[in-house]
Structures are given as C-alpha cells and as structure tokens.
Amino acid sequence: MPRPTASWRALVKITIIGGSRGTGAQLAALAHAAGHEVTVLSRSGQAPAGVQAVAGDATDPAAAARAVSGADAVVVTVGGAKGVPRQRTAVTRSVISAMQEKGVRRLVVQSSLGAGDSGSQMPAPLRLVMKAVLAKALADHNGQEAAVKDSGLDWTIVRPTGLTDKEPSGTWKALETTDGGQLGGSIPRRDLAACMLHTLTDDSSVGKAFGVSS
After folding, report:
1. What segment(s) does the record annotate as region Disordered (predicted)?
2. Is 67's pLDDT higher than 70?
C-alpha cells in the first residue's frame, strides 16, 4: 500500500476536474467556504461563485496541465459522456499525466460502488442490477481505478452508492472492502462532497479505496 509522500493536512489549493455541476460543484463550494483556493476545469467553463473557472477538455494535455499547475491536490469527479466510451478513464489518465508533469502529488478520484472489488459491499440483488444495467460504466470506472493505482501518486478512491439531491445529513459511512459489512443504497451529493473534502486532508486515506453511503 502506498504511503503518503507528505502530510496533506494543510493543503490550500485544490483543482477539481468536472466541478461545474453535481458532486464536483458541491465540493467546489464547500472547499471555497472552508478557505481553500479552488480551481474548476470543465468543458462549460462554469463554476460556483468565488471559484476560479477554467474552460477546457480534461483529455487535452495542455488544458489538464494548465488546470493542475500550482495545485496542492486534484479531485476528479467527472462523469461519463454520451457517445464517448471510457470517458472517465481517458480523463483520469490525462490528469494523472499532467500531475506527474507538474509535480502535484495528492489525488482523490470519485468512482462508484461496484467497481473494483467493492461488489461485496452491496446487497446481492443490487449487485446483479448494477452488473446488468451499468456494465459499461463499471468497466470505465475499473479502467479509471487501474490508472489511479498505477500512478505512483498519493491517491484515494471514493466509491459512492447511488447519488441523490436530498438534503445532506452531515454524516456518511466509509468502508474499505476489508472492513466487511455492506453499505446503504444512496448518499446525498452534498454529503459525498463533504466526505471527499475530509478525505483530501486525511493522510491515513492514501492508497485506499472506500465505499461511501449515508
């Protein structure tokens, strides 16, 4: 298991890939409110108030390098793109290359429960549905996770259950597969964003993958 190359408790500058909406936008807003300098790279060029927006395609090496330059940490929250196979994998590989080029070490990536070895954390009926309905998305997440684990960076993978827009509870449950037990069926995006912000500065999370639910 990788050990952190530095302490990440005092990181300041955070770049979010795919932070114009969804969980990424929630994370950008929370990080900004917590006093971090936040940059968002997205194709739309949009970002929450007070956050620096960079317009560009994260699979473009120049755009990825521009976005991560000077950052203390990078978070990838990008989703799939219609008609683009393995979008998450392509974006994550591009961002990793940019981080390696710019000397940025800390990486947190949003994957999905069901990816990797996390199927055991779901009830059997849900696991069967995921495999049948989301096979392509899970294959993309598996490619994404493989790139992260091979990156040599100080990485953490977060695998949420189903995402909702419900009011946040301010709490969450995060388990490694070695912890045993199963996770609930959903989590509000705001709670996932709070979990990811906490994870960024948690040195003990480096080199680990967590399933996360309410």
Report:
1. 161-183
2. yes
Residue 2 lies in a domain: no
- How far apart CA 178 and CA 163 sit, in angstroms, is 23
Query: At residue 115, what is the residue type?
Result: A
Domain assignment present for 112:
yes
CATH code (residue 188): 3.40.50.720
Q: What is the pLDDT of residue 83?
A: 65
Task: Give residue 160's domain range.
Answer: 13-213
Query: For residue 92, is it within any domain?
Result: yes
Per-residue pLDDT tens digits for 163-183: 999 999 999 999 999 898 889
124, 24 contact by CB (below 8 A)? no
CA pair distance 159, 117, nearest whole angstrom: 11
pLDDT at 134: 82
**208 belongs to a structural domain:** yes
Please state the domain count of the chain. 1
Beta-strand relationship, 208-213 and 173-175: antiparallel
Any idea of the CA torsion for 176, 97, 203, 51, to the nearest 10 degrees? -100
